[in-house]
Amino acid sequence: MNTITTIGVLGGYGAVGSAVVRRLHRAGTGPLLVAGRDTARATALVRSLDHAGPPVEALAVDLDDPASLDLFTARCRLIVNCAGPSYRVLDTVARAALRGGADYVDAAGDDPVSIRLQADCGWRAWLTAGRTAILSAGALPGLSGLLPRHLAADTDHPVRLDAYLGGVASLTPAAAGDVLLSHGPEHGTPAAAWREGGVRQRTLEPRRDLSLVAFPQPVDAFPFLSTEAERLARALGIDQVNWYTIFGGDRLPEELAMAWALGSADPTDLVTAAADDVRRHGSWYGQEFHLWTGTTDGPPTHTLTLRAEDSYELSGFLTAATAQALLKGRIPPGVHFAAEVLDPRGTTEALSTDPAAHIETT
């Protein structure tokens, strides 16, 4: 077992990674290694940090070089992966972490990584080594699966959950690459809903010009039952789940539909489309959950709304919180999703006092 206490943040100078590094550094968690191909950006981030905190070092690491990854993980007690796009990274860094005797937190990952880590009973290797891998520790998936658990924690017999998730934001090339690949059975089912213990396809239609508290303007909502939503429905034992992706602008959904139709994997046009939407509508992000208990008659029994300016900062919050929970021994060995092992109440309360988000429950 690796007893070194260093935390290595791969992609630590990116939009999510830099938020993670700054949060861990402010909390006094370290020493930290800011790692990735671009050592100039890593060094610039290190220099921008308050020198009163724990030691921080920049390190060159190449995802395509197993020896480079192994040298990196050998120095670390915990690897926090913020490198992207996730569909290209997949389980590469997680397996390097296990080889090096380190625990692992992935800001993304979700089912595509989980499936690969558990193939051929690979999950047993994490238990045998006494190591932990935590996936989907971002805003979506991640907070999107944790916040409704908090909402339902003190309720009796939840019967229906409606979720609205999204907004308007710029896309990094890595994030755009993940958006392009975020369809197919490993991610979820368009137009589907959860009904009485299973996925019911072709159930829901898009909702146009919808006004919701979490979003500053009317939005379009597109039904997409994610694999995270399916896991949540099973965990809560809920009869109905309606899960919607929110777009606040026109350019991104149009460009995304075209890219999917053509089978394109080039994120350039998506980055441009997202930037156009931000110029026209501003940058904002939200998550809103409506929960019915006992009966679906009438308005929802409980609601939770989250409003934020920056979804990357939200992901940084949850990734850092997951890393700290793991380091404090609050998560057992094995392969887990963040929303399923973090404390919903404690995490939501911490986020409610964080400048990254504004949360209201009724």
Automatic annotation (TrEMBL):
Alphabetized InterPro entries for the sequence: NAD(P)-bd_dom_sf, Sacchrp_dh_NADP-bd
Protein species of origin: Streptomyces botrytidirepellens
Listed name of the protein: KR domain-containing protein
All copies of domain Saccharopine dehydrogenase NADP binding, residue ranges: 8-109
Pfam families reported in the protein's UniProt record: Sacchrp_dh_NADP
PANTHER family listed in its UniProt record: SACCHAROPINE DEHYDROGENASE
Superkingdom to which the source organism belongs: Bacteria
